[in-house]
Amino acid sequence: MIDKKIFKCLRGDESEIALVQEGLKIDIRISKIYEALFTLEEMREVFRHALPAGLDDSEEERIDEGLKRLERILDEIRQQKGNRLRYVSDKIELRTREEEFINIDPIQAGGRLTLDARKALIAYGDGYSVCDNCLKPFRLDKIKKPPIDRFHDELAAFLGMDEARVVPGARRGFQAVVSSLVERGDPVLLTSLSHYTEFLAVEESGGVVREVMADENNIITADRIAERIEEIERKDGKKPVLMILDHFDYQFGNEHDVYGAGRIAKEYDIPFLYNGAYTVGIMPVDGKKIGADFVVGSGHKSMASSAPSGVLAVREEWVDKIFRTTDIRGDLTGRKFGVKEVEMLGCTLMGAPLLTMMASFPHVKERVKRWDEEVRRSNRFIETFLKIKGNRVLSEMPRKHTLTRVDTSASFDEVAKTHKKRGYFLTSELKKRGITGVFEGATREWKFNTYGLTDREVEYLGSAFIDIAKKYGIEVEA
Amino acid sequence: MIDKKIFKCLRGDESEIALVQEGLKIDIRISKIYEALFTLEEMREVFRHALPAGLDDSEEERIDEGLKRLERILDEIRQQKGNRLRYVSDKIELRTREEEFINIDPIQAGGRLTLDARKALIAYGDGYSVCDNCLKPFRLDKIKKPPIDRFHDELAAFLGMDEARVVPGARRGFQAVVSSLVERGDPVLLTSLSHYTEFLAVEESGGVVREVMADENNIITADRIAERIEEIERKDGKKPVLMILDHFDYQFGNEHDVYGAGRIAKEYDIPFLYNGAYTVGIMPVDGKKIGADFVVGSGHKSMASSAPSGVLAVREEWVDKIFRTTDIRGDLTGRKFGVKEVEMLGCTLMGAPLLTMMASFPHVKERVKRWDEEVRRSNRFIETFLKIKGNRVLSEMPRKHTLTRVDTSASFDEVAKTHKKRGYFLTSELKKRGITGVFEGATREWKFNTYGLTDREVEYLGSAFIDIAKKYGIEVEA
């Protein structure tokens, strides 16, 4: 057992002191792996300033020192000992959330990097790293090495669409479509469960939001969409110029009738943007089958990529509108700017985040095929979770997604009322058990996401909740 | 000497075969450092799927295997032997440009990551990695851990402005300002040397571009700006609603009269956006002293950060306009979205690129103080370069920047005319000497950037050009 004071001095994190107190030891090897990674980066730095002719004596010495330090670190890993590294650099703490905990954060699950993505990040971190071989016509999606051009083709095919572009986040995909289609005062159809970034995109364009209300089960139905369109046409004097529907919303993770929406969109001749922030990259999405004109996905939410990243895919008939190339010219010089696309502002996602998308992509293509298993595990966890008396699920049941909203007002919140840590007792108890991602202090309504967890992790997670309930005398069904 | 065929099989890169032929050996340790980094990532991956309770036997075995592999790699580093790693992952090649070469690419110099930025990238690669401690009011620039809030304050102070936001690239900074100020048909003052992304931002807004022509020395002067504003007012019936001036342009790296422009902007009461893509992060910039209303910088161009990243800083009086918070609400639900900023689309630069900006920032703050040395080295290289008969500098002289445009039509292009590799002979000869970044095949007009090179690298670079000139019988001044 490490002395509490020493531990605090080394790390200063109360929750981990608790971990040590509970006997759930943080594995020192995680910190040591970081130390070794950083030492190798220091050695790499030597080569970055060396002459091509070779290292000089002092540089050779630094490499030697690096090797020696690595040897010591490998020894510490073998012996599972040594001090913990606290900082990446001045003021920036080491991040070990994914290594030390089971993370059920509602938005982080699908954006964890794959091993290949982390390797790509190491290799392609420098600013304009993907531009080494940028040749005519000088546009990101035309670069062949690394194979960015092919990746774009594969992305479009993956989404069942005709053309795709990477963008710095799904929100930038919404912005590009809205900016192309919506004029001041135009009605845009969103829903009562739409993500705020859709609202902001409409606000920036000067458009007017018209919501479709979810039904009593918090589902957006095709009937309601059709009714609302007719109402808007009656009241505003014109149909919405665009409709945006989240396949699964961020509040409940409920599935909305995107196929029905696709049908309605065609019937009323309204362009349809499918928001796949919670689907593209974790479950199969076929834009044309859905009847979408535009498909937007998020790299950092669901495609195992670094932020900010995302994809905007469109059907053939929209390519000239959304991906229109520049038409402007210098009024005196007559300068023109070739094939640069206006809404993309030229190149969009040079560098590191794009490479993480590309490196993760083969794995993403495979993992969407296993979506059923993810949903099964989600339901399996919920089943355990509901054994705790008072726990309720606010999302649709059975779950069709791994993101779920729950209400523990009648269970954990009852404990919080008299606990000295108040609502923080729950997150604290979870952390002691190596679980993180629940909003700090939340004991009433909160969300979690089991995406990417294995069977044994889901089982562990369920046991942890049962264990906490029992510890505080909450009744648990056998 | 490695056999040519084997080398080609291992790496497949003609230019490097040439390197080996010339006896300039690529240091195998660079590739081995990558192998070790990747092996550590594989070990890290084990912990990412382990239960908090600890590793099981098969996981322990994988850690052991990793340790053994690392031992072998360290041995290979010591003995400088072993095979070269070619790929990061399927289809994505290893990138060793910065380690193996002196890179004088015109756009890559200022965006090379610092050691601390590379460490931060390793730790914060996962999608929403900076959102672990996102609390009310839920906005990126308010996050305290990692210290993103303080970074924003420091950024504003660093630029001599009042408020700053990070953005996914300088172009997104232009877009935010233009979208806030420019209505359809409004004239916007750019110059004959403006970057294309400024044109695209104006095009997206529906504005009209009006250029100021550079003078005979390719400099934008205050007089010309004033004249042009008066002409626009006469002809268009209104003044420009915005003027954008690049402090140093991307074509010549010439300095334009931003202080004069600041004066004119005030005199004519026109908002002034200072484009510091080639200054912010490499030389001191004081926005208020310049008289700028907005300062835009690029993380991946000049702040040692991963793409896409940048900064938009504004003066107090513009905060409410450019960083206006959302006003839109759901027409049925009445939903509102708090302090989210419209032009930022909420949060802008979550994750990896932001952390590289933050980790590099202390170094960036120091390096701008050494700008004079950078300029001195730039001029020192030019001096050597001009000893080669026929070489000309198209940028202003003496150089005030490290980015320079040259014309070698009367020297290297003469060689290219009869060389079997044509224009590629020059880049090939440079690569043999461990130098990269000159546009492949260019022997007439081309650009380079010496930013970040040490004295000895600049000396080596000069010698290499002299050496190539002599090899091909071009006259060289003693």
TrEMBL record, chains A, B:
Q: Which reaction does it catalyse?
A: O-phospho-L-seryl-tRNA(Cys) + hydrogen sulfide + H(+) = L-cysteinyl-tRNA(Cys) + phosphate
Where is the chain membrane-spanning? Answer: none
Asked if the Swiss-Prot or TrEMBL record annotates the protein with the keyword Membrane, the reply is no
Give its E.C. classification number. Answer: 2.5.1.73
One term of GO molecular function: Sep-tRNA:Cys-tRNA synthase activity
Could you mention a single GO BP entry for this protein?
translation
Keywords on record: Protein biosynthesis, Pyridoxal phosphate, Transferase
Instruction: Name the Pfam families for this protein.
Output: SepSecS (PF05889)
- Cofactor(s) in the UniProt record: pyridoxal 5'-phosphate
Q: Which residues bind pyridoxal 5'-phosphate?
A: 170-171, 275, 298-300
Function of the protein: Converts O-phospho-L-seryl-tRNA(Cys) (Sep-tRNA(Cys)) to L-cysteinyl-tRNA(Cys) (Cys-tRNA(Cys)).
Instruction: Quote the HAMAP family the UniProt record gives.
Output: Sep_Cys_tRNA_synth
Q: What is this protein called?
A: O-phospho-L-seryl-tRNA:Cys-tRNA synthase
Provenance organism: Candidatus Syntropharchaeum butanivorans
Lineage, opening ranks: Archaea, Methanobacteriati, Methanobacteriota, Stenosarchaea group, Methanomicrobia
